[in-house]
Amino acid sequence: MNTESREIQDDKLAAIGIGAMIVFIALILVAAVAAAVIIQTAEKLQQNAQTTGEDTSDNLAGKLVVHAAFVSSGGAGAPGGYTPGDAYVLYVRLAPGSSAVLVGSITFQMVCSNGVLEGTFATNGEADIALLNNGPGALLSAINPLLPGQPYVLWLDGNFGGIDCSPDNGDTTIQLYIHVGSGGSTYEVLTIGNTGAGSPVI
After folding, report:
1. β-pair partners for 22
2. What is the dotted CATH code of the domain comprising 63-191?
3. Residue 69: its pLDDT value, please?
4. Residue 195 · residue 167 · CB < 8 Å
5. What number is the average pLDDT over the span 77-105?
6. Radius of gyration from C-alpha coordinates of the chain
7. Three-state secondary-structure class, residue 36
């Protein structure tokens, strides 16, 4: 007696397995895309944070700190051309954490009622700088560096180019900006109470 069954059976187990595999592969692809997006976002955030930190460090560290400022004494106490009533003398240091700065990269601006006076330390007669211990007899040139930790003295002419922002121009306050190349900027308000040589303005 032949007991072999010729009935066609409906076997759905293989179809279920293929469907599960498709879902599994789709999940892997989605996870890979999500991981790539997360990694890319993390790298971008890290780069932005690093750039922001470097910019902040440059702005805070790469600038001059003004400790005191006076009406220039002129004569033997200043380079030639810086006369009392026309010029200022400032005592400064580089901010903590600063790198060496070339004198030629430093510029200044004075804002007063007569306009905006702009000058550079690369040209004698507008502004000069020297080590505090050396005085006006050893002015630094544009290619000399300012070194961290060293005290310096700056002379700023307040009257040239047709704009008078000098101590005796009649203003009681003058805004001073000192810019250091690609580093930071220093802002000070010069308060003119007395135009006599040696009178404090900060």
Report:
1. none
2. 2.60.40
3. 93
4. yes
5. 85
6. 35
7. helix
In sequence order, the 6+-apart residues with CB closer than 8 A to the CB of 104 are: 120, 121, 122, 141, 142, 143
- Which token pair is 70? 């006076």
How far apart are alpha carbons 181 and 189 in whole angstroms? 21
pLDDT in tens, 149-166: 899 999 999 998 899 999
- Tokens describing residue 133: 């211990």
> Are 113 and 106 spatial neighbours (Cβ–Cβ below 8 Å)?
no
Q: Considering only CA atoms, which of 121, 107, 88, 112 is closest in space to residue 177?
A: 107
Distance CA 134, CA 175 (A): 28
- Provide the residue type at 108 as one letter: F
* CA 91 and chain centroid, separation: 21
In the chain, what are the domain boundaries? Answer: 12-61, 63-191
3-state secondary structure 136-198: HHHECCCCCEECCCCCEEEEEECEECCEECCCCCCCCEEEEEEEECCCCEEEEEEECCCCCCC
Q: CB within 8 A of 115, min separation 6: which ones? A: 163, 165
What contacts 160, CB < 8 A, 6 or more positions away?
117, 119, 125, 126
Residue with tokens 């047709």: 162
Q: What is the separation, in whole angstroms, between the first and last Cα of the chain? A: 120
- For the cut 80, the answer to whether the pLDDT of residue 64 exceeds it is yes
Amino acid present at 80: G
Cα distance between residue 34 and residue 29, in whole Å: 9
Q: What is the pTM of this model?
A: 0.70
